[in-house]
Design goal:
The radius of gyration is 40 Å and the shape is elongated. The longest helix has 32 residues. The protein is an alpha+beta fold and 1200 residues long. Strands 2, 5, 6, 7, 8, 9 and 10 form a seven-stranded antiparallel β-sheet that branches. A five-stranded mixed β-sheet has the order 14-15-13-16-17, covered by helices on one side. The protein contains 41 helices and 28 strands.
């Protein structure tokens, strides 16, 4: 057996702090903020002068005797002063050690000690646990006794009672003994519940014992703070308290994390059905409020649920114990898991809870769980409850709950933990690890156990046999804990066994992922749900939207660049192990429920560690203390000598270092973009901190609002989501209901935050009812509501009033609760696309709003408006850098078009290059019309590209140009139709890095063709363009891409045909200026018309007929169009109209046979090659089988 010591950093020690809380005789008595309304100032302690607290005038201070009131406690001492990574928070620890403050008692009251625990989260995401032993100590301070006597006399005089000697709560120092509560607390990095409780109990027993302990109490406290290390993973450790050995253990790398809170007690209190319901509420991140008169019950249920969430982690407010000053946190409009103590005789109705629509209220004492409406069942809930019931019955616990039952004692065939403990202690004696006094005590204990079977009474009033039975019950409880947790871990493994197949790794590096995290989809939810059993979909569709699942997937994504979270690494390793035995023959949609197969092994593993300690810590020893310190006074906890407890003293003992340390198990979590409220701020009771806390609540609500509305809009984008691999072609009813349910919950929390008047469980419906009552006087005789307000922002008039929709719901929703009616009203408003206008109307009645109206107004108008009013777009024109100054001379405008419509003409403000506007959802963007109104010769600029940003989805579209816009330059165009392409995140940053020369893909087609690849390459490109169009129409409609891109984009039909016609075209222009195909087409048509008028078609193969007439008519109509689209734009329109009307294949031979062609083209030109022209005409003819529909932006202004 190894001997271990903790001589390293605090992170490797068993305990971080030892704390003593109680009454401070120097500052006097001050009633607790949540309990009393008077206090005694310092002068009261001497002159018995008492004054009322400012603002107090009744309440508990005058209803109860001072002996029954709660007073503020203080941290009397804590050791050490601070640790490296976990600074001591005096106010928070004091509040959690004594949530109800100081309690006074007399000899007539029960003075039983109490135990409870708490948890504190630090800013880096780590968590510490506090274990508190509270007992009553006789008051010896004359000042405190005098102050209490004065308060009692004052109370009796105000209550009209004189000299009530002997009544309940009275105090007479001549007759009564006054006791006050004191708390001993041990703060540890891991939840060592049993070991910490035993240490504190033994410490208190040593104080109350008439016999002094073997060593001063400082020796035991110093030992546990500085010399007892954390057990290594997968090992157990024995250390010594004041009266005997204490054993603790720590799970190994492949086991579930440490969880000592007795799940058996939680299941016994609530029952299996209620515990599964509570866990479902926690998984779906509802607001969970625990209610009990016992603080430890609150912690037991809260920590039990928290451990059952593995591999997921609660991401929101987690305060299993909140005192009265923290009750303002119940108004938090965010998910929370909190617990409040039930006051004597208090009922739930007295709580005045602001949020109940999505609240899970757990009345632990009455064994009741009230879940929100429409709570889905946990997958395979019936089978899961049956399996859990079987586990509980094996340990002698009833599955129905409602009682507190201890696990059954060990059978005669089971090894006796007590005897093994004694044998191990004897082995320590043989190894020389025990001192003389301890040896004598040990030998007497062993002799007593053998001689009388445990009949000897210990100092704590228990027989030795009883102590041994408790140890065995702890072993049973530990085995029950791990088996219940294994059942749930097995269920999550079955549900998410292939989750990594649906994780989307779209980012190239961690920085880009963090930058664009909100706009990214990291999990293919649609595909995942499609392979799940139908009975699981209701739960899973909502669970996939929670923060805990998002955080879980985020951890998987960043594991490509950083170490995995310990919980996720453990879960993944378990999945990999199960896959080795999985044949893969079962379909996930129809697989049967499989029970957990590791229950026995997990129980045996923990039993081996608890029955045989692997390491023994250094024993407590005498410290270098001053003479007279450490004297024993029975019944009084001494004032500890601070200098010997402030830091570790050097020892010569050998050490076993903890290689892993707690940092590996609870390492600082990777901080994502989402910001969680820090618990240290939540526990700060200063007015500034409370104001800041609620401001952060509202900011978080706004952020959640943006994310939810963006998600709803993205799902409704249709084909755009398909192209990006972000969903199915149309949103399913299940997914839509899930998103709307989330929106309803968000609105409920928004309206419930700070609401002063509420009736029923729904804050929103309560607000609507009050609004309906306030508007009742403005009704017209016909029942319509008179609304004289004008609709601003150019919005359309309301299609049905808010009150009319309420009445419709009230008429048609008989039997629905308040929450159901509120959700029905939201559904109806969404269907009518007037939810935003309804919410704005509610905002006009400011009397119904209690707090933060501006924030709410901003939330509703900016985020919910997009559901009914439109999508915000931002358009940025990027000129060539060398000529960007020319933008000051133009007056540009844009019109953005997509598959669902266009934005209309939007004028760019003068001297700017961008515009922000809102319009209806345009869907996937395809074209952009860019023009300018100024037609002067100086009004011209060279445009690089135009960028369009969808502010909701985060999508960026790039519309390459690379051409001039203005008269007398280029093709003289004042308007261009640009073709868009979706770019990846960050690509828009490259848009402004180009030099004055357009890159090849942005260059004018006429310029790029000057370096033509040759006739073969041109014909190959032409065949590819035609083939792309053919393949487009042979695909299923939902899989087709953008037709406009195939026609007019890079490598499209227009550019390829332009290359074909430019091949071999002669040019007499100086300096090799641009040659435009449209010049040839115009001249060819003009020569045809002239020859026809003169009858001079003699000698030409060109024959007069309908194709020739249509060619001339189309060219003439295009030239007569009011749009100034330039020569390139006219040729693009010419090709698009020709292919749409099935004429292009007929026009090409006409142009080839035109007499002008021989004079304009060289002998080797493709247009003069009859075989090439015939092949191209045949290819174009194949497109006549398809109905081609052109976008309005392409044919605007042309009536053909």
């Amino acid at each position: 057996m190894n001997t271990a010591a903790a001589t390293g950093s605090a992170s490797c020690r068993f305990a971080h702090y030892f704390v003593v809380c109680g009454v401070d005789t120097e500052t006097g008595l001050e009633p607790d903020d949540g309990a009393g309304c008077i206090y005694v100032c310092e002068s009261c302690l001497v002159g018995t002068r008492v004054r009322r607290r400012a603002g107090g005038g009744g309440g508990e201070g005058f209803e109860h005797s001072p002996v029954r009131r709660s007073f503020k406690s203080k941290v009397l001492a804590h050791y050490p002063e601070n640790t490296d990574r976990n600074p001591f928070n005096k106010d928070a620890v004091n509040m959690l050690c004594m949530p109800r403050g100081l309690s006074f008692r007399t000899q007539a009251d029960r003075l039983d000690p109490q135990f409870h625990s708490f948890t504190i989260s630090f800013d880096d995401g780590t968590r510490s646990y506090g274990f508190v032993h509270t007992f009553y100590e006789e008051v010896t301070s004359p000042q405190i006794i005098t102050a209490m006597q004065t308060l009692c006399q004052m109370h009796h005089s105000l209550a009209g009672v004189s000299g009530c000697l002997g009544c309940v709560g009275s105090f007479d120092p001549t007759r009564d003994t006054l006791y006050v509560s004191k708390a001993l607390c041990l703060v540890t990095p891991l939840p060592f519940l049993q070991a910490s409780r035993q240490f504190l109990v033994q410490l208190h027993q040593a104080v109350t014992s008439q016999t002094a302990p073997p060593l001063p109490l400082e020796s035991y406290i110093h030992n546990i703070l500085y010399e007892v290390p954390l057990p290594p993973p997968g090992r157990s450790l024995r250390f010594h308290g004041v009266q005997g050995p204490i054993l603790c253990q720590r799970p190994g790398p492949g086991e579930l994390p440490l969880g000592e809170y007795p799940l058996g007690d939680a299941f016994s209190l609530l029952g299996v059905d209620s515990m599964v319901k509570l866990l479902t509420c926690a998984l779906l991140e509802t607001q969970v409020l625990l209610y009990s008169s016992d603080y430890q019950r609150l912690m037991t249920v809260a920590e039990g649920i928290n451990t059952l969430l593995f591999p997921f982690q609660w991401q929101h407010i987690y305060l299993p114990i909140i005192s009265a000053p923290l009750h303002h946190l119940l108004d938090a409009p965010v998910p929370f898991l909190m617990g409040i103590q039930r006051r004597d005789g208090a009922q739930r109705s007295s709580l005045n809870l602001p949020h109940e629509a999505n609240l899970c209220f757990v009345d632990i004492d009455n064994h009741c769980v009230e879940a929100p409406e429409d709570l889905p069942q946990f997958p395979d809930q019936t089978e899961l409850i049956q399996e859990l019931s079987e586990v509980l019955l094996q340990f002698g616990l009833p599955p129905q709950g409602g009682v507190i039952a201890k696990p059954t004692t060990a059978s005669s065939s089971s090894p006796r933990l007590s005897s093994l403990v004694l044998e191990d202690l004897m082995e320590d004696r043989r190894n020389g690890n025990l001192g003389g006094e301890e040896l004598a005590v040990l030998e007497r204990l062993q002799a007593l156990a053998r001689r009388c079977g445990g009949g000897k009474m210990s100092d704590g009033g228990k027989t030795l046999g009883h102590v041994f039975e408790e140890e065995e019950e702890e072993l049973k409880a530990a085995k029950l804990n791990i088996q219940l947790r294994e059942v749930f871990a097995g269920r999550f493994a079955a549900m998410f066994g292939r989750y990594d197949d649906f994780v989307i790794h779209s980012a190239l590096d961690l920085d880009s992922w963090l930058t664009n995290r909100e706009g990214m989809f990291n999990f293919d939810k649609g595909s995942f749900l499609s392979v799940q059993p139908a009975s699981h979909l209701h739960f899973l569709s909502r669970f996939l939207e929670t923060s805990m699942f998002s955080s879980f997937v985020d951890g998987k994504v960043i594991s490509r660049w950083a170490d995995r979270e310990p919980l996720q690494q453990l879960f993944d390793s378990r999945l990999e192990r199960e896959r080795l035995y999985d044949t893969g023959s079962e379909d996930s949609c129809s697989c049967l429920y499989r029970k957990c197969t590791t229950l026995f092994e997990s129980g045996q593993t923990i039993e081996r560690r608890l029955l045989k300690a692997d390491h023994t810590a250094i024993h407590p020893h005498l410290l270098d203390m001053r003479i007279g310190q450490g004297r024993h006074h029975p019944g009084y906890f001494p004032k500890l000598q601070a200098d010997v407890l402030a830091q570790a003293q050097n020892t010569n003992k050998s050490t076993v270092s903890d290689q892993s340390g707690v940092d590996n198990e609870q390492r600082q979590k990777y901080t994502f973009a989402r910001k969680n409220l820090r618990q240290s701020k939540l526990l700060d009771l200063t007015p500034q901190a409370i104001t800041q806390t609620h401001r952060e609540f509202v900011d978080g609500l706004l952020s959640e609002c943006r994310l939810k509305t963006k998600r709803m809009l993205k799902e409704r984008m249709g084909k755009e989501s398909v192209e990006l691999g972000q969903g199915e072609a149309s949103i399913t009813g299940l997914q839509e209901n899930t998103l709307i349910h989330g929106l309803c919950d968000l609105l409920e929390r928004t309206w419930g935050h700070g609401l002063q008047v509420k009736q029923g469980k729904s804050a929103l419906w309560s607000h609507l009812l009050h609004y309906q009552a306030a508007q009742g006087k403005t009704e017209a005789p016909n029942g319509l509501i008179i609304d004289q307000r004008t609709v601003d922002d150019g919005a359309l008039p309301l299609r049905g009033s808010l009150i009319q929709d309420m009445r419709f719901i009230q008429t048609m929703s008989e039997g629905l609760s308040d929450v159901g009616q509120a959700r029905a009203w939201i559904h109806l408003a969404l269907e009518k696309k007037i939810l935003s206008q309804h919410l704005k109307e509610l905002l006009t009645n400011q009397e119904l709003w209690a707090v933060d109206k501006k924030k709410r107004d901003k939330c509703i108008k900016r985020d919910f408006a997009c559901l009914s009013l439109g999508i915000p777009y931002r358009v940025v024109i990027i000129p060539m850098k060398k000529l960007s100054i020319a933008m000051a001379t133009v007056d540009p405008w844009v019109c953005v078009s997509g598959e669902l419509g266009d934005s209309g003409v939007r004028q760019i403000p003068k001297n700017t290059q961008e515009i922000f506007f809102q319009c209806k959802n345009l869907g996937r963007l395809s074209t952009l019309q860019l023009g300018q109104e100024n037609s002067g010769l100086l009004a011209k600029c060279l445009i690089d590209c135009v960028m369009v940003y969808n502010e909701i989805t985060g999508h960026t579209y790039k519309f390459p140009c690379g051409r001039w816009l203005g008269k007398g330059v280029g093709d003289g165009s004042l308007e261009r139709v640009l073709i868009g392409q979706l770019v990846s995140p960050g690509a828009e940053e490259d848009a402004g890095r180009l030099t004055g020369t357009p890159p090849p893909e942005l260059a004018s087609p006429s310029q790029s063709v000057r370096t033509v690849l040759g006739s073969l390459g041109i014909q190959e490109d032409m065949r590819e363009a035609v083939n792309n169009l053919v393949k487009h129409f042979h695909k299923p409609e939902q899989e087709r891409g953008n037709l406009t891109v195939l026609l007019c984009g890079e490598g499209g039909l227009v550019l390829c045909l332009e290359k074909f016609l430019l091949h071999g075209l002669k040019s007499n222009r100086l300096f090799q200026r641009n040659v435009f195909v449209w010049d040839f087409v115009e001249k060819a048509v003009a020569s045809m018309e002239t020859a026809d008028q003169m009858g001079d078609l003699h000698g030409s193969t060109l024959t007069k007929g309908p194709p020739c007439d249509l060619l001339c008519h189309y060219v003439s109509t295009i030239n007569a169009s009011p749009r100034n689209i330039g020569k390139e734009g006219k040729f693009q329109l010419f090709v698009c109209l020709g292919i749409r009307d099935r004429l292009l294949s007929l026009w090409l031979p006409l142009l080839a046979d035109c007499p002008l062609t021989a004079r304009t083209y060289e002998d080797g030109a493709l247009l003069r090659d009859r075989a090439a022209v015939h092949s191209l005409s045949r290819m174009l003819h194949t497109l006549n089988d398809f109905a081609i529909t052109l976008e309005t932006a392409l044919v605007k202004g042309v009536d053909l």
